[in-house]
Amino acid sequence: MPQRDYVKAGRAAPRPKKNTKTVKPFPWPLVITVGVLVIGFVWFLYHLSQKTPVDDAVTPAITAKKDELPPKPAAEPYQYIKELENKEIQVQVEELEAKGPFLMFCGTYRAIETAQQMKAKVAFAGYPSEVRRIEGKNGVFFRVTLGPYSSKRQAESDKSRLMRQRVAECRIANAT
Fold first, then answer.
1. What are phi and psi of 10, to 5 degrees?
2. pLDDT digit string (tens) for 19-32?
3. Backbone angles phi, psi at 62, to 5 degrees
């Protein structure tokens, strides 16, 4: 069965076009505006060419005033410049205590195979680690540790690098 277009069926047939041409009116306001602008521009250029040049006798008087500088003061009114040249500052420096070596713990596991897998992931990231056996109340655990680090800043740097590489989320603690 052929398809029917029910939308076109409800519309009336289009009317045939007539051969009448519509005449657009001439844009007189545009022509007048452009003409006024052109005439104004020509008048402006003519007006500029008729101006007399500035006399050279007036110009040196103006430049002479610009070149004059105020006289220098006889004595410096401020004393701090001389004081700062010869001043010596004493600073007390307190030594920071070394908080000891730091260790980074990257996981605690019951099975040694799982701890070895974590150690391999950390090694592929470029850090040496070791698996330590820990005896606790609930049995034997295996902990993956990195370090010791001399400063906490070094440990934080390695921790953030391991997190960026999505190897492990580690925590930092004192070794003592």
1. -85, -10
2. 667 778 889 999 99
3. -70, -45
